[in-house]
Design a protein that fits this description.
single chain; 283 residues; 434 Repressor (Amino-terminal Domain)
Length: 283
Amino acid sequence: MTPRPALTARRLRLAVELRKMRERAGMTATDAARALSSSSGQLSNVESARFGVSPDRIRAMARVYSCPDQSLTDALVEMAADKTRGWWETYREVLPSGLLDLAELEHHATAVRTAYTSHIPGLLQTTDHAREIFRHVIPAPTPPEVEHRVSHRIKRQDVIYRDEPTPYRTVIHEAALHMRVGGRDVARAQLQHLLNMSERRHIAIRVLPFDVGAFPGSGQSINYLHGPVPPLDTAQLDQFHGPVLLDAEAHLQKYRRLLDTVEATALSPEKSRDLIRSIAHDL
């Protein structure tokens, strides 16, 4: 028997969106299965991602459910047709699945927005900075585990280096810039890397200075990954036990508003560069 493909965030999201499409149509699983000349069990397996689904089947479901959003249907069809095995799959036996899910979502995102209060975003970390961060993971990792995490993090950064890079916007609290992760030399190199990356046209880095005081979302690290259409966006929160993925529309609206507010509160990209340069100079 052929092994079932790993249940990735993308496969699960496809299944969830098909269930949402049916529910918006007001159809029970039994009624939908009958209209699709299928069985309730087969439909349940599709909606739980235990079974795969073909592009033609998705279009049939969209017709039966009278889905009014053709762009959403097209995006779901494209998700189902994409059988590419991503580079992150080589890490499946050595890293937590949440890290692989984040890499997959970043790879397919049409744009990425983030906000970080206590550390530098992973997509902008230097190798030395990342290595020092992972050395302090609990429980303590072995040296090979550290290197697996470092190489995975650096490979994730391909999305902002590739020929058609993903637009990237981030807000970093000033506190993260003052942390001397790895000592002065590593910290100074990390700040210089931020300055270099901030000059790229597809990257916008804003700093939230200390004198702002309280602000929405303080204490959280947020990754917002734009899908091919807004209903397929994903908000990812960093938690001590691992990444948490959110895709309910209410959550997506909340974090879009939060990121808009934080960006509006932060310094401009030009003033942010000046502050980063000043902090690096004082190290």
